[in-house]
Write a structure and sequence with these properties.
By secondary structure, the chain is an alpha/beta fold. It folds into two domains: 233 residues, Protein-Tyrosine Phosphatase, Chain A, CATH 3.90.190; 169 residues, Gcn5-related N-acetyltransferase (GNAT) (Aminopeptidase). 38% of the residues lie in helices and 17% in strands. Strand 13 and strand 14 form a beta hairpin. The longest helix has 17 residues. The N and C termini lie far apart (48 Å).
Amino acid sequence: MDGHIPFERLHNFRDLGGCTTEDGRVVRGGALYRSDSLGKLNGEPHGDDWARFLALGVRTVIDLRYPWEIDAKGCVPLHASFTYHNLGIEHRPYDQASLGPEVEPGPFLAEKYLEVAHDGVKELRRALEVIAAAEGTPLVFHCQSGKDRTGLLAALVLALLGVPETQIVEDFTLTERATEGLLADWRADRPGQSPTWPGYGRAPADVMRLFLAALARRYGSVRAYARDVLGVDDELVAALRRHLLAPAGEPTLAPPGEPAPGPATPAASVTSAAFRRADERDLSTLVRLRDDAARWQIAEGIDQWKPGQLGEDHFLARMADGEVWLAALGPDGPVIGAWELWWDDPAAWGPQAPTAGYVHRLMTDRRTAPPGTGRRMLAEAERRVAEAGRTLCRLDCLAHNARLRRYYEDAGYTVVGEQRSKDGGTAAPYAVTLLEKRLVTA
């Protein structure tokens, strides 16, 4: 479980998707993010970080900081695509960096978290209400470092979803990956100085363990604390679970960029999709779709595509030696996905007779695509292959991506082999599973 998403200025932005609950369900990817201060995006409002953030399709931002922190450090650049809530859950300010080396992080921070749990009752409950009201559309909550206040709210949400303590603790400790960046930010604001507390920016596991144990001693469980202190009723917990969890056995990973099943996707109908050949005017859209899909893969822990790996020259070449297609919500609607259609693929399949079409880079826009868009585009690609008089539609996927292979198998594709060292032109050779589907031609 590691949903870190790389940014230049943000060090601790990650997706809580992928956590598993005690009853076997999974927290949906792309629905719930945690981060250090989004005010850092103010430095380059039109830079790569800002574009990367908007590409996630965030619809709600919860800022857990004090108003005076926001005045001093900045707020996320406001944008029409999301709503912003400032819910300062901490009421007793203190300076971690100035603590002495004798202060043990575990007991000290656990006690501070207990203070927040009792001082910030109104704001914590409101934060849970906002998360439930988002209905699974992408939401991010943050404080300054994305560790303490953010860690407390993350622990509370995950516990109410039924995620076991071991995973809650593991999520908390992932901030350790961001420690060096958080320290660099602190020093940049105070040239020539260093924190006196060795625990600054650190997230040892015993902090969260001690905090959760203290809540359990006082109230019996985190759920009991939420019920008895925050006033969180069964209806609110049910809403959180309904919108943020995938049922046991439901696939949560689809083709690159395709929305996970469920209410996180827009309420449009995939039957309204319209298809057209892409041309040079669409090059920037295709690069954006591919980069967004790459960031989604990274958030889901899939080591395959990388942002910036393919540019306009790639898609221009594919238009010249094959076909590139776009899907949109109606003739004048927003683009919801794209794919490439090749007429030969020697890198994966070797020399072949002209009997097949080869689908590549099937990708959807998580912000606009209705459920089932990937399957609908695949069917359109198959129709085009059959229209060309070819009897097979072929594709490949990473050999270790079992979920994606199952997705294609559910769409009628059969595994017919494996290419152990495909050269995809972007990295070292890699193993792929080969799949094909026999088509009915006119």
